[in-house]
Amino acid sequence: MHGVVFAPLDSKSRVCVALSFMILSMLLLASPIVEEDEGGLRGVILAYALGGMATGIFEPNFLSCITPLGSSTKSLAILGIPIGISGLLIGGFFSMGPPLDMPATGVYSFVACFLTVAMGIMAFAIPGVPIQEGSAHKGLRRLVSDLRQFRAWLPQLWSYAFVFLLDMLVLSSVSPGVWLYIYDEATVMIRPQVSLATDSFLAIFNTFNMFGSVTGRWLSYHTSLRHPIVYTIFTGTGVLLMISSRYLQAPLLQCLATYFVMLGDGLIYGSVSRHIDENIPKEFNLTGISYWCVNGDIGAIIGTNSISTLRSYMIGN
């Protein structure tokens, strides 16, 4: 709905709006309101609502905004996503663990500062090259027009987007998903009489997570374009390793498992991005990317809501 609510704005301006929402979300989480018994929950809900809107607006508009800059630009840009996320997860978990023991509010404030820098880069360093548009309409009329012309873009895209839905379901439920709630003690038993602080273990876990995602996204633009269903073999391998690691009582095996899951994710993400740019008419670029992202959001919602069930299954209560 970003194309309807923010119809007067171009994709570049919408990206800045999204960053503003995320900055507000981080500042709200860093504020004292979330620590108050009465108002804290409302503050968290509002923060998550702002963060959700930011995510929904940012990704399709950012990807569409940089499409005219060429595949080389996009192949590098999509590498920044796992590097930024994993860099935050790795640095965040290390910072919250010993010896720094930084509070989570410090991490939120740190993110808000970097998002402000990102907004400046987006506004002043990224060229705003307009993309070809097939309709002169804006807002809801433009959306309706693109939906009426679905035969021009949907048949070539729906199966790619569905694979991404399944991919996001796996990511949100098991990588890291449920494992953040299984390893919720102060330490993780690596082997008999050898333990590691949970925050440190998760930092290592997220390092493998990052390398898998970066490798997959890089390969997706440096190999022949294939249907993303091919790459689900890596996702499936990772899931099997994760399940095995739990029953074998081998937590470090999960580091290899998340590498495979994220390798598959990176290949799937990059192949869908390439497919849209190379095979979907340019006038439907933003609509196609938005449809792809909505499928990912659906998978993520299903996966997130399955975490409690998976946790009960894995630990038996």
From TrEMBL:
Transmembrane intervals: 15-34, 40-63, 75-95, 107-131, 157-182, 194-216, 228-245
Signal peptide: none
Keyword line: Membrane, Transmembrane, Transmembrane helix
Record protein name field: MFS general substrate transporter
Annotated source species: Polarella glacialis
